[in-house]
Structure formats: structure tokens, C-alpha cells
């Protein structure tokens, strides 16, 4: 196993570095210390060809100009917070408004747009990148000085683990995720409409027209949201279900996971044979099928368009601060926030 390190760009006099983790099977994961962005994941398909299975760019300028959070760690709070405010112990906190008057994925200068301190850790059976960042009290409107750590670890079983840890010196809120867009066809040869997704989930959150949870938890039974036995993504894009239409003809919905750390998320591309199994400690996963991916730029030579990638964002629920029935995103002073998600790649 080995790690490659090279300069990726410069940002305000600081060097942005790209790190590539390579295991003994030839799998590669490349990430930069700007936003902890995963720029490439290279894995084999059934015929032995190694190709990239995530959406990303080769320059920092493209990420800053065009990226809808490709590959980034987002926080302090993933997803939308209605009206960009929440109340904690009687104090109302006003966050940056960056999405139709609401707060999305940490705001204007969230975790995805800062340079993290990176260190390489090498073990006998794995290699990892450890990213650290101090989010200062008041950043984007959030209370508390928050020390964050994100670890990307690759082993020889083609398993890629993402771990998060956070500690604040004040009571605050925290809900982070990784926003990678997957496309198992390899090098964006096809869109993701024929990918088959299996989810161990019997319930999902209803969204309003602003794509914010209404608070209602709906059953997936007899709907295009039932992925328990496997379903092609195109079912939702062709659906007349009001929630599919509202999301832009597809999915942008949080699902409640019925199981954890037990093959609960399974993505498969029949053409290449590639499989991705995701296991997590998080209560849910937001399924986004890039229904709103804008045209007008290219992604490593492929024209951007709808349905080019699928996000499986393991996390707590969007707007949970305004819905007491949802799992809490509140982090007490000096409490240690932890979260872990494992991505297992294979083919058949």
C-alpha cells in the first residue's frame, strides 16, 4: 500500500494538496485537503478495467465555480435548515442564508470550502488520511469552537471507511456527511438511471416545495420509494408520485434506515458489474439522484446533465433542529461526536 502526494492548487497563498491512497489490489482514492473533497475513486469492473466511479474535477477553480458539493465533507449541519435559524436553550441562532432563504450544508463558507490540516497514517493493513479543522465560534452563525477530525481509510479488501469526530467548547449542533456523487458505470460512460439501488428502509421523510422536511414520516409501501427488494433509479424519475415530481423528477429524500452496519445500502450497475455496499452508524441516508445538476460545464470531458451521479449521504435528518421527533443534532459542551460510514467496492 502506498500514498502519493502532489500539489493540486494554491488558495490565498496556501497550497492545496492532493493525496492518493493506493491499496495492493490497485484501488485508488484521491482526496484534497480543500473541503476533504474526494476527487477520484478508481476501482475495477468485471473485465478488469480500472475506472473512476465518482464525479469530480481536476482543478480547484472548477470546484469553486461549478461544484454542487462533489465529493466534499459538508457541515456543520448537512442538509437544509428552514429559514436559516434554530433555537438552543432559549437563544435563537441566525445562520447564513445560501439556499432560497434557508441554510444548506453549512452555509456560504462551510466545511467544504476551507483548507484542512492533513496527515498520512500508514498501518500494516491500511492507509489513511487524517484531516483536522477548527471551526471557530460564530462561523456561519454556529455557536462554539468546534474541533473537527475526518479520517479517510483504505484497506486491501477494497473497503473505504470515513470516520468523523467533533468536540465543541459550547453546546452546539453537528450533523456531517460526505457528498460524493457515485456513478458505477466508470468514467461517466452512462448516467445512473439503470443503477439498481437496494435500501433497508421502510420509511422516508416527506418534503415541502422548498425540499425541507414537513415533519411527516411516510411509509414506502406501494411507492417508488420502496427500495427494499431493489429498484432502478429511473423508476423515480419516470414516476407521477408527487414527492418525485416535487424533487425535480427523481429523489432528494431522507430515508430512515431499518438496520445499521449490516449491508443496509447496496448500489449495483449491471453493465460493469460494479457493486457498492454502504454501512453506517447514522440513522438515515439522503438519496439524491442529481435531478438538479445544471448543464453548461463539463466533468472531465463529459457534459454535465441531470442523473449523472447518485448521492447516498449517510447522516442525521435535515432540519432536525425544528422537528423534535427527529434524532437530535445537538452536541453538548465537551461531548464527543462520532460517526462512521464504510464503502465496500466489488464486482460480479
Automatic annotation (TrEMBL):
Q: In which pathway does it act?
A: Carbohydrate metabolism; hexose metabolism
**Known catalysed reaction(s)?**
alpha-D-glucose = beta-D-glucose
Keyword hit for Isomerase = yes
Molecular function (GO) terms for this protein are: aldose 1-epimerase activity
The record's section on Gene3D superfamilies has: 2.70.98.10
Q: Which CDD domains match?
A: galactose_mutarotase_like (cd09019)
Q: What class of enzyme is it?
A: isomerase
The answer to whether keyword Hydrolase applies is no
Q: What is this protein called?
A: Aldose 1-epimerase
Organism this protein belongs to: Peribacillus deserti
Amino acid at each position: 500500500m502506498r500514498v502519493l502526494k502532489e500539489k493540486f492548487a494554491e488558495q490565498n497563498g496556501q497550497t492545496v494538496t492532493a493525496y492518493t491512497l493506493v491499496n495492493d489490489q490497485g484501488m485508488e482514492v484521491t482526496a484534497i485537503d480543500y473541503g476533504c473533497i474526494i476527487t477520484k475513486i478508481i476501482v475495477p469492473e468485471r473485465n478488469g478495467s480500472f475506472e473512476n466511479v465518482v464525479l469530480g474535477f481536476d482543478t480547484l477553480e472548477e470546484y469553486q465555480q461549478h461544484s454542487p458539493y462533489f465529493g466534499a465533507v459538508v457541515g456543520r449541519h448537512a442538509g437544509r435548515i428552514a429559514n436559516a435559524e434554530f433555537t438552543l436553550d432559549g437563544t435563537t441562532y441566525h445562520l447564513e442564508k445560501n439556499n432560497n432563504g434557508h441554510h444548506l450544508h453549512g452555509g456560504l463558507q462551510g466545511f467544504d470550502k476551507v483548507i484542512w490540516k492533513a496527515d498520512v497514517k500508514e498501518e500494516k493493513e491500511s492507509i489513511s488520511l487524517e484531516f483536522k479543522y477548527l471551526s471557530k465560534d460564530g462561523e456561519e452563525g454556529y455557536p462554539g469552537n468546534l474541533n473537527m477530525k475526518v479520517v479517510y481509510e483504505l484497506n486491501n479488501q477494497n473497503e473505504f471507511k470515513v470516520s468523523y469526530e467533533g468536540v465543541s467548547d459550547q453546546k452546539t449542533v453537528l450533523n456531517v456527511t460526505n457528498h460524493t456523487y457515485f456513478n458505477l458505470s466508470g468514467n461517466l460512460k452512462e448516467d445512473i438511471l439503470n443503477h439498481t439501488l437496494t435500501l433497508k428502509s421502510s420509511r422516508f421523510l416527506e418534503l415541502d416545495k422548498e425540499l425541507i422536511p414537513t415533519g411527516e414520516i411516510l411509509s414506502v409501501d406501494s411507492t417508488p420509494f420502496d427500495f427494499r427488494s431493489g429498484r432502478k433509479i429511473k423508476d423515480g424519475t419516470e414516476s407521477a408520485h408527487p414527492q418525485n415530481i416535487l424533487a425535480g423528477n427523481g429523489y432528494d429524500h431522507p430515508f430512515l434506515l431499518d438496520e445499521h452496519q449490516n449491508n443496509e445500502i447496496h448500489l449495483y450497475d449491471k453493465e460493469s458489474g460494479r457493486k457498492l455496499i454502504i454501512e453506517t452508524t447514522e440513522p438515515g441516508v439522503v438519496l439524491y439522484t442529481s435531478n438538479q445538476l445544471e448543464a453548461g460545464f463539463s466533468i472531465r470531458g463529459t457534459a454535465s446533465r441531470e442523473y449523472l451521479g447518485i448521492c447516498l449521504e449517510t447522516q442525521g435528518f435535515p432540519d432536525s433542529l425544528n422537528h423534535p421527533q427527529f434524532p437530535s443534532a445537538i452536541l453538548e459542551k465537551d461531548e464527543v461526536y462520532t460517526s462512521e460510514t464504510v464503502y465496500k467496492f466489488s464486482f460480479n
